[in-house]
Amino acid sequence: MINYIYQLINPQFFSIKLCDVNTDGKVLVRPKYMSICHADQRYYRGQRDMKILSKKLPMALIHECCGEVLHDNTGTFKSGQQVVMIPNTPTRKLNYIYENYDEKSKFLSSSDDGFMREFVDLSPDRVVPCDGIPPHIACITEFYSVALHAVERMQNFAHSHRDEIAILGDGPLAYVVASSIRERIPKAHITVIGRRVRKLERFSFVDKTYLAYDLPQDYSCDHAFECCGGEGSYDAINDIIKHIRPQGTVLLMGVSENQIPIDTRTILEKGLTVVGSSRSGKKNFEDAVALMQTQRIRRRLGSIIYEDAPVRSIDDIHRVFATDQDTPFKTVFQWNL
Amino acid sequence: MIYGAILAGGSGTRMHVSSMPKQFLPLRGKPIIIHTLEKMLACNKFHAVYLGVHPSWMSYMYDLLDKYNIETDRVRLAQGGETRNGTIFKIIDEIKRDYGENDDDIIVTHDAVRPFVTLRILEENIAAAETYGACDTVVCATDTIVRSENGEEISEIPNREFMYQGQTPQSFKIKLLKELYAQLTNEEKETLTDACKICVIKNVPVKLIKGETLNMKITTVNDYEIAEVIAGGIKLD
Fold first, then answer.
1. Is the per-residue pLDDT at B12 higher than 60?
2. pLDDT band for position B235 (cuts 50, 70, 90)
3. Mean per-residue pLDDT for B159-187?
4. Residue B60 to chain A, least CA–CA distance (Å)
5. Going by fewer Cβ within 10 Å, which terminus of chain B is more open, N or C?
6. Where are the domains of chain B?
7. What residues in A contact B237, CB-CB < 8 Å?
């Protein structure tokens, strides 16, 4: 079937590619709501290295999306069923690592076209039902699943003393990580350390917030999550190394284009475990959807969503990327193309 | 219920190069009509999709459905009529015979030779037909339209701001379309070039739906060559 694929061919320049797709053995999903990730914004603005851009583009953006099943000749899903789509696409099964770290896995909107298409054709195991979750919230399932994956990894690595957990960052990633810790380690005392008062005020469910420059010298934590990325990574990582207690676990989650000098001497002295955490897999999606069935989580996630007007043209795609630059949290929009 | 109607009653005379009606020519290796049908079937709002095919090509069409593994439980074949509207009303008769008649039944009529229709256009047609009773798919006119009554000199240059080019689908409440058509005189019927004109003649509003430039009609050899290129990707912004 002929599919319209809305590809970014150069920064801020889209083209439509028409492609005849073989739909045998696939679930066909009509995207309904999408959410913009920083990674999409970096491609759109041309903030990636030129070599990488020239290798990756043309490519359709967006990997956070929910939709409606159009047709499924595998019989797994009903026509009209609301689902979320998993952008990570494993090509083999390795039992000793997660699917999202396998070099052979593909990722839609990084190594293949993302969800900005008329319809998406996926294997049934890359589709998770999300009945009952409002679509403007369901579309950030991938984002929430990334946080749940990071917390799962922390629980796998970290020693059992988990009283004080610090989160460095005050953006949407920090928010969903804090929310995930609250669900998974309910007794933990959560401290969020950020740079903007207005953003920190949104973290109503954590125990303490600090502005980074006001962080007491004697503050200490058992484990910590870095959720800054970019220019903020340097300060955040080194603050964590300074304040974390011996043999703590540090989760690195923020993406930085440049290499970051870090205080390795103290990492060695304290015997820290540094864990990189990125993306997520099917189990994390299923966990996220299960948690999003509760009103509490939906309300919490709903408070970091800004819904822009629906997208009905390529001009509208430019508009949502511009909106996303000016909104502090997640920009979501209805996909009507 | 909502029905799709693919109009493929033509015999392809304008193509000049082929003895085969243009809707059966291959586009990237697959007949144009199969591309169109696949997209209509992907829209799960359609209870059934009818193909109005020229009587001489019915058997060929059945063979194509088999060859391309089309889910035949939602596809029905109807014999095309003498004219475009003749085909539409033959399909409406078939719908009545197969599924009975309901006041809110909707028909989404679409040219077989517009394989690049999108799900959005189909969905918006259905919604507009439900709300307004009739709708037409259009794109803004990019060329200036020049009107000439004698074919020699300009009679008028209408303001382009108000000019659109008609595409398909055109969609209707079946009951409304039948009632309006029954009210037309024979002279009025002869002036019909498309189904929306039935509503326009009787002063019934027709909602405009934004089409796509790519939703082109493959009519000439040049169109066919362009379509082959489009199907392999095109630049836009």
1. no
2. very low
3. 93
4. 20
5. C
6. 2-230
7. 13-15, 314
- pLDDT tens for B193-231 read 888 999 998 999 999 999 999 999 999 989 999 999 988
At A192, which amino acid appears? V
B42 with A13: Cβ contact below 8 A: no
Residue B55 CB burial class (10 angstroms; 0-12, 13-18, ≥19):
exposed
Shortest CA gap A197–chain B (Å): 40
| C-beta separation of B49 from B128 below 8 A | no
Identify the burial level of A56 via C-beta atoms within 10 angstroms of its C-beta, where 0-12 means exposed, 13-18 middle and 19 or more buried. Answer: middle
Q: In whole angstroms, what is the distance from residue B65 CA to residue B57 CA?
A: 13
Residues of A (18-57) whose Cβ lies below 8 Å from B? 18-20, 28, 30
Hey, are the CB atoms on B44 and A312 less than 8 Å from each other? no
Helix axis angle, A314-326 relative to A38-45, nearest 10°?
120
Chain B residues touching A17 at Cβ < 8 A: 233-234
Taking 70 as the threshold, does the pLDDT of residue B14 lie above it? no
CA distance B75 to chain A (A): 15
Give the chain A residue whose CA is nearest to the CA of B123: A336
Q: Are the beta carbons of A251 and A228 closer than 8 angstroms?
A: no
Q: Does A336 touch chain B (CB under 8 A)?
A: yes
Domains of chain A: 2-139+304-334 (3.90.180.10), 146-276 (3.40.50.720)
Tally Cβ neighbours within 10 Å of residue A160. Answer: 6
First-to-final CA distance of chain B:
37
Would you call A266 an interface residue with chain B, using a CB distance cutoff of 8 Å?
no
What would the pLDDT profile of B69-94 be if each residue is shown by its tens digit?
897 789 999 999 888 999 999 999 99
Q: Does B229 touch chain A (CB under 8 A)?
A: no
Model confidence at B234: pLDDT above 90: no
Joined together, the tokens standing for residue A87 give 């952008």
By CB atoms closer than 10 A (0-12, 13-18, 19+), residue B9 is buried
- Work out the minimum CA distance from A15 to partner chain B, whole angstroms: 5
Asked if B227 and B115 count as a contact pair (C-beta separation under 8 A), the reply is yes
Q: How far is B143 from chain A (nearest CA, A)?
A: 21
Model confidence at B237, in pLDDT bands (50, 70, 90)?
A: very low
Q: Which of A16, A17, A119 sits opposite B42 (nearest CB)?
A: A119
Domain B2-230 belongs to what topology? Spore Coat Polysaccharide Biosynthesis Protein SpsA; Chain A (3.90.550)
Q: Which residue of A has its CA nearest to B33?
A: A1
Instruction: Using the CB atoms, write b or e for A194-220: b if 16+ within 10 Å.
Output: bbeeebbebbeebeebeebeebeeebe
